[in-house]
Amino acid sequence: MRRDHEFAPPYPGEVLARELWTRTRVGLGERGTPFDWHAVFGRDARRVVDLGCGNGRWLIHSALARRDVDHVGIELVPPAVKMASLRAGQRGLTNLKIAWGDATEFILERAAAESLDEVHLYHPQPYYDPTKRARRQLTPAVLLAIWRALRPGGLFVFQTDNAAFARYARKIAPALFEWRELATPWPDAPKGRTLREIEARSRGLAIVRAEATKLALEPLEAERRASSQPEPDFDADRPAFARRKSARRGGRGR
Ligand SMILES: C[S@@+](CC[C@H](N)C(=O)[O-])C[C@H]1O[C@@H](n2cnc3c(N)ncnc32)[C@H](O)[C@@H]1O
Asked: Could you tell me if the CB of 125 is within 6 A of ligand 1?
């Protein structure tokens, strides 16, 4: 795995003395087991989830800035989980846990209705290969699950540097959310909230950032609206630099 500091600014916060490090890994247990926030954090606070948190840069930034908010990041790739949990633990955080697992399964099956305050999805993989499109992290079912899991007025934050993915999110999200795009970088992290954002900006890619507020709808109406949205079977328009990289690797790509 690429080391984070090769091209990115340092992680937020400071590494504490070793005796102050915290344990920030959390297991998800059997598939479908509801996530027990109270048992994990020992309190009832506002709750934030990052679906596919990568190396956890944004979560660490947010958890340091908002000690009164509990955060969970779910990530599929073990080295990223290790990096995120190590960096969070070195900062002594007690309001952030990192779980190895499938974030889609988490939001579909482990998040109780109206139990979360924010759900963040930064730079979901576009999956250029048509045979992998089913792995895309935003679908009408996931959008509905996010809507359901959020408390009234809850926030869905979405960000991508893939133009086709941005068009798709812009098309389906307004069915269940009030969708607002930001014209400028996040004021709380002007250089970028996540590693992928920093990397994409260094390559000159345009970033689409949106904050979407849960619409007040009856659950049946939300289901009806979600079911009329298209599946994410769009062509992700692999950018030229990624085409060159994939050609060098013999055509394998995400
Ligand atoms: C392009 S990276 C972005 C990482 C991070 N959000 C960022 O912006 O830097 C996409 C991440 O999503 C993770 N991912 C993809 N599908 C996932 C899933 N179903 N569950 C959890 N993580 C997933 C990948 O392993 C990868 O770390």
From this structure: yes
Which sequence spans correspond to the domains of the chain?
19-248
Residue the block writes with tokens 């996010």? 146
- Tell me the one-letter amino acid at 103: A
Q: What is the pLDDT of residues 135-168, one digit of tens each?
A: 999 999 999 999 999 999 999 999 999 999 999 9
Q: What is this structure's pTM?
A: 0.93
76 lines ligand 1 (CB under 6 A): yes
Q: Which of 55, 77, 129, 238 to mutate to test the pocket of ligand 1 (most atoms within 8 A of CB)?
A: 77
Could you tell me the pLDDT band of residue 1, with boundaries at 50, 70 and 90?
A: very low
Ligand 1 closest atom vs CA 196: 9
| Cα 216 to Cα 74, 150, 169, 220, distances in angstroms | 27, 11, 19, 12
Q: What is the CATH number of domain 19-248?
A: 3.40.50.150
